[in-house]
Amino acid sequence: MKIFAIRDATDNAQKDLAYLLYYEVDKRFYIELPENADPWETPLLLASFAQKGEHTINSYWSRIWVQQRIVPSDRQNIAQILRDNGLKTYDEYELLMLSSGRCEQDDYYLVPIDEKALPEKVLRRFSRKIEDVVPLQNNTLLAFFRDGMIRRCEMRGYFEKRQPYSVLLKRPDYFARVQIQTGGYGVQWDDNLSISDSELYRMGKRVPMTMDDFRVFASERIINAAEAAEILNCSRQYINELVKTDKLHPIKTSEKNTLFLKSEVLRRNWQ
After folding, report:
1. Which residues 6+ apart lie within 8 Å of 119 measured at CB?
2. Are both 106 and 23 inside the same structural domain?
3. Separation CA 198–CA 193 (nearest Å)
4. Is there a single domain that holds both residue 110 and residue 96?
5. Do the strands 193-196 and 56-57 form a parallel or antiparallel pair, or are they unpaired?
6. Cα 154 vs. chain centroid, distance in angstroms?
7. d(Cα 165, Cα 56) in Å, to the nearest integer?
8. Closest Cα partner for 110 from 118, 119, 101?
9. FRET label pair with 106: which of 67, 115, 189, 211, CA 20 to 30 Å apart?
């Protein structure tokens, strides 16, 4: 992750007006505003977020801000521009770096900084980013946050009030494909169906368990087919037969392995 302070060249104090974060693997941008962001000082596109008291700018609007500062991809002579600047392909980040984020429309520019240089309140937001998410039945998400908190988020009411999300009510298989957004900034099913980390944190009900508790559970209570065969003192073929006859129920199956709850395997010894 690359981090840059957004500053105004006309400001003698060189105050950090915002922070641009770039995740290199996914090529995704996010902008964080300081808690005391002044809408009159904040770059124009971001000022409306400051006015509403929103401090995290989602990836869509963050990318729009970046695109306003670089040559557009549909410029007629874009191929020659890329060659002149030593670029083989159109890359928003590389183009942004060529000018340190400067453009002709304003006086803002970028300064690379270390994560430790971020304000404490901005760093505190990172502690509430999502570490993991598990889809449960009845349109419920189990969200794991970096601060160790686990929250159970019942999403049906949220989806019912937002028409684009209705597909998630009709298709449980699609709901189950939920993924974490880059950087833990939320969850998504596609680019048009996403929910921010702050929304999930706010709407979720705390589960009296920590991420460490969950890791211990997974480590101690989930076993593979070989371990199940060892517990039952039988062959892998017999484990497969138990599954086929609905006497043992895997929690996950892949081409290479099958996982079981240890407690269910142990109960087979009681029968």
Report:
1. 16, 34, 35
2. yes
3. 15
4. yes
5. unpaired
6. 19
7. 22
8. 101
9. 115
Q: Quote the CA–CA distance of 218 and 262 in Å, as a whole number.
A: 10
**CA-to-CA distance for 28 and 185, rounded, in angstroms?**
11
Q: Where are the alpha helices (DSSP H) in 25-165?
A: 44-51, 59-67, 78-84, 92-98, 120-126, 156-160
Helix (H, G, I), strand (E, B) or coil at 133: strand
Q: Are residues 91 and 148 in the same domain?
A: no
**Structure confidence at residue 216 (pLDDT):** 87
| Inter-residue contact 53 to 37 (CB < 8 Å) | no
Are 148 and 194 in the same domain? Answer: yes
pLDDT in tens, 7-43: 999 999 999 999 999 999 889 999 999 998 999 999 9
Quick one: tokens of 62? 């963050």
**pLDDT of res. 17:** 94
Question: Where does residue 240 rank: exposed (0-12), middle (13-18), buried (19+ CB within 10 A)?
Answer: middle
Q: 49: which DSSP letter?
A: H
CATH number, position 201: 3.30.2020.10
For residue 85, the enclosing domain spans: 2-123
pTM of the model as a whole? 0.76
- Those residues whose C-beta lies under 8 Å from the C-beta of residue 211, and which sit 6 or more positions away, are 131, 132, 144, 145, 148, 150
Q: Please report where in the chains the tokens 């996010």 appear, as a residue.
A: 30
Same domain, yes or no, for 153 and 241? no
Q: What letter would DSSP give residue 238? A: H
Looking at the 3D structure of the chain, how many domains does it have? 3
pLDDT tens string 205-262:
999 888 888 888 888 889 999 999 999 999 999 999 999 999 999 998 888 889 999 9
**Closest of 72, 69, 66 to residue 20, by C-alpha:** 66
